[in-house]
Amino acid sequence: MSETGSALSWQLCARCGKELPVSSPGSQCPDCGGLLEVRHRPPSIPAGMTLRETFAARRGLSGPLDASGVWRFRELVLPGAREESVVTYPEGNTPLLSRAAVSQWSGVEALLLKHEGLNPTGSFKDRGMTVGMTQARLLGARAVACASTGNTSASLAAYASLAGLPALVFVPEGQVALGKLAQTLAYGAKTLLVRGDFDACFALVREAAEKLSVYLLNSVNPFRIEGQKTIVIEMLEQLSFEPPDWIALPAGNLGNTSAFGKALREARDLGLISRLPRLACIQARGANPFALGFREGFARPHRVKAETVATAIKIGDPASLDRAIAALRLTDGVVTDVTDEEILEAKAVVDASGAGCEPASAASVAGVRKLVAEGVIRPGQRVVAVLTGHILKDPGLLLRYHQETEPPPSRANRPITIDAKLSAVEEVLGTNRH
Ligand code: F0G
User: Is 148 in the pocket of ligand 1 (CB under 6 A)?
Assistant: First the structure.
């Protein structure tokens, strides 16, 4: 801790070990270019209380920090943050759902769904954004920016508006789901439709952040990761710190996989849990560089030209590959990929269960089913699948699936046009009678 003195938190380059103060604004190590991570001193908690009790005592309180499912765990997120500087909606506090139809379809008897789509802007990104935006304000950033497949941009736009900071987002033209684009415009971010894919947007925003000194809020930003860790911490708390056997999540740019690994490592080191769940990272078949690497023991990085209906994870060259590999190794995790057909079927099952989610989120459920079929996950194991985004994020795809696809998929729910007559209603009811 040579450079960081008595600070509560500091940044560390995971590649070369260089330490930097939290006030250092870049996402990469100035010496070797590696990604940074935030480290904290051991939590200081009230005498006579455990960390678990400290978190539990805040549940249900209404102060701005305690009301948030991110800042309630502030000792693990950013212990030095003060109430007046935190940019919070509040966010988090998402439910852990049990839906019989989804369990049955997946093949896991006790499947639980951590529904991150129930965050304020409809995705898990809000958990990272509250911390990243707080940091932007602490640093006195003049503007914030991100590249996005849509959810990060929606979240950044909302939180920039809360913080009173100008926001600039780079999204691939014609490839962002309707709900996400609509949100981004409505929350007021300056929205650049880039002629290129997500990977091109990301390269451009990185250059812009460096040369035009705007603060970069993609998940390479280590403060975003600190917030996203709370998906796992909150889930563990909901399970009374009895960890599940598996946590399944969709994997794109790999920030979330990295955050889950860091959360689990820290939870174990702090004694919150005594064993680690295994991570199951699920990619779309057409956007599967992480799955390709996993099959070869990560002998070399893969890059693909991404193509999938799950536009949120349509990413060919993931930025957080190294730290995601570390998360997998730590948890004895696996990576697999699922086809667009499998994603759409999983989504139809999740949607019809009443839980509902966006296409990328359904990849986690499709992946669980595949891993059960392959004998990797056993039906009696405890599994949590993370639903990362809300059902209304991608209404275009929903309407195509249910109304337009020919021949109709087996789970399509076609609307029925009728004349405004009771007899027509009766006729419909009749056809539905078994
Ligand atoms: N699920 C959803 C709904 C997402 O929006 C994303 C990423 C992921 C899963 C994958 O998470 O990238 O950390 O591996 N969305 C980013 C965005 C890329 O711009 O909104 P990851």
Answer: yes
**Mutational pocket test of ligand 1: of 127, 256, 328, 338, the residue with most ligand atoms within 8 Å of the beta carbon:** 256
- CB of 209 shorter than 6 A to ligand 1: no
Q: What distance in angstroms lies between residue 253's CA and the mean position of ligand 1's atoms?
A: 7
Q: State which ligand 1 atom lies nearest to the alpha carbon of 255.
A: 13
Q: Is 256 in the pocket of ligand 1 (CB under 6 A)?
A: yes
SS (H, E, C) the chain: CCCCCCCCEEEEECCCCCEEECCCCCCECCCCCCEEEEEECCCCCCCCCCHHHHHHHHCCCCCCCCCCCCHHHHHHCCCCCCHHHCCCCCCCCCCEECCHHHHHHHCCCEEEEEEHHHCCCCECHHHHHHHHHHHHHHHCCCCEEEECCCHHHHHHHHHHHHHCCCEEEEEECCCCCHHHHHHHHHHCCEEEEECCCHHHHHHHHHHHHHHHCCEECCCCCHHHHHHHHHHHHHHHHHCCCCCCCEEEEECCCCHHHHHHHHHHHHHHHCCCCCCCCEEEEEEEHHHCHHHHHHHCCCCCCCCCCCCCCCHHHCCCCCCCHHHHHHHHHHHCCEEEEECHHHHHHHHHHHHHCCCCCCHHHHHHHHHHHHHHHCCCCCCCCEEEEEECECHHHCHHHHHHHHHHCCCCCCCCCCCCCCCCCHHHHHHHHHHHCC
Residue 221 CB–ligand 1 contact under 6 Å: no
Model pLDDT for residues 378-400, shown as the tens digit of each residue? 999 999 999 999 999 999 999 99
- CB 250 less than 6 A from any atom of ligand 1: yes
At 240-298, the pLDDT tens digits run 999 999 999 999 999 999 999 999 999 999 999 999 999 999 999 999 999 999 999 99
pLDDT digits (tens, 9 = 90+) for 139-184: 999 999 999 999 999 999 999 999 999 999 999 999 999 999 999 9
- pTM for this one? 0.97
